[in-house]
Amino acid sequence: MTLPAFRTGFGYDVHRLVEGRKLIIGGVTIPYHLGLLGHSDADVLTHALCDALLGAAGLGDIGRHFPDSDPMYKGISSIILLGHVMDKLKDSGNWQLVNADMTLVAQKPKIAPYIDNIRDNLARSTGCSIDSINVKATTTEALGFAGKGQGMAAYATVLIWRT
Ligand code: MG
User: pLDDT tens digits for 74-87?
Assistant: First the structure.
């Protein structure tokens, strides 16, 4: 059976905020006194996007392809992982990204000044134009782990098409 030419995917990720780490969102280093903790650079937004892409292509999730037990991925830029994810989509069925929509959930700091830079990074890595990459940020009105500044969450949806 031939698969349809379009598929959607969804991704979700959470990382803890700690002292002594850089805050990297969508490949952009954002000045802040806390950063996200993880085996890689813990770029929560890019991880959600990777999971959405892998999900759309039926390729599982980021943990399966880049296990956090593997020293090769220690401290790695998640933008590089995103490039690997795009290669996997191409290899598995000539899938390309049509568009992505993402929401970062963070109480602080203000993300708005960095959003176009983030979109530019993600557009480059996925081979899309910047207008196909939408990034939103929201607080949770001080409720829950994100609202209390204990961590950040990110959601992503994508549409991919077979070229
Ligand atoms: Mg993650």
Answer: 889 999 999 999 99
Query: Ligand 1: distance of its center to the CA of 59 in Å?
Result: 17
Ligand 1 mean position to 46 CA, how many Å?
Answer: 8
The angle that helices 44-56 and 78-93 make with each other, rounded to 10 degrees, is: 10
pLDDT at 23: 98
Instruction: Measure 161 CA to ligand 1 centroid, in angstroms.
Output: 25
Asked whether the whole model's pTM tops 0.90, one would answer yes
Ligand 1 centroid to 13 CA: how many Å? 5
- Give me the residues of the chain with pLDDT under 70, please: 1-3
Which residues partner with 24 through β-bridges?
29
Please give the distance, rounded to the nearest whole angstrom, from the Cα atom of residue 121 to the centre of ligand 1.
18
Could you give the dihedral angle defined by the CA atoms of residues 47, 83, 71 and 28, in that order, rounded to the nearest 10 degrees?
-60
Domains of the chain: 6-162 (3.30.1330.50)
